[in-house]
Design goal:
The chain folds into two domains: about 10-110; about 110-140. The radius of gyration is 19 Å and the shape is elongated. The protein is an all-alpha fold. The protein has six helices and no strands.
């Protein structure tokens, strides 16, 4: 793997997640896991909606960083909630196993191959052109 392809793995949202993970866990210990979970979930949901409406790549990257920060709040708080919800050690182990499996699947987002990126870019250009054509037609 060349250096440029390796940089794709170090995305801004992942960087925000990694930087804020321990801090979010500490805030959850001090302020309460439910509060941190609720704020993280609300922030992640709002950022996801904003990503769908991002007018430029710059806005998209910034909002994806907000998603990373929100995910940093969700990870430790969900694990803490599981720990306090399941008192039986066997049930807790199963719940943590499910949590780890889901977190692993969610984190396994390799960069898209160049062919897929090109195809998505082409589709995006066609959709944007269609929307712009419809706007101009309705404005006339």
């Amino acid at each position: 793997m060349d250096a440029e392809a390796g940089l794709e793995w170090l995305s801004p949202p992942t960087l925000c997640l990694c930087i804020l993970l321990l801090t979010a866990g500490l805030i959850g210990d001090v302020k309460g896991r439910k509060l941190v979970f609720t704020v993280g979930l609300a922030l992640f949901t709002a950022a996801s909606a904003r990503c769908a409406l991002a007018p430029s790549m710059t806005v998209l990257v910034i909002v994806r960083c907000v998603q990373g920060a929100a995910a940093a709040a969700l990870f430790p708080s969900t694990l803490s909630i599981i720990r306090h919800t399941f008192s039986d050690s066997r049930e807790r182990a199963q719940a943590i196993g499910v949590w780890a499996g889901v977190a692993g699947i969610a984190a396994d987002e390799p960069p898209a191959p160049p062919e897929l990126r090109t195809a998505l870019r082409t589709i995006d250009q066609h959709v944007r052109g269609y929307i712009e054509h419809a706007r101009m037609k309705n404005a006339a």
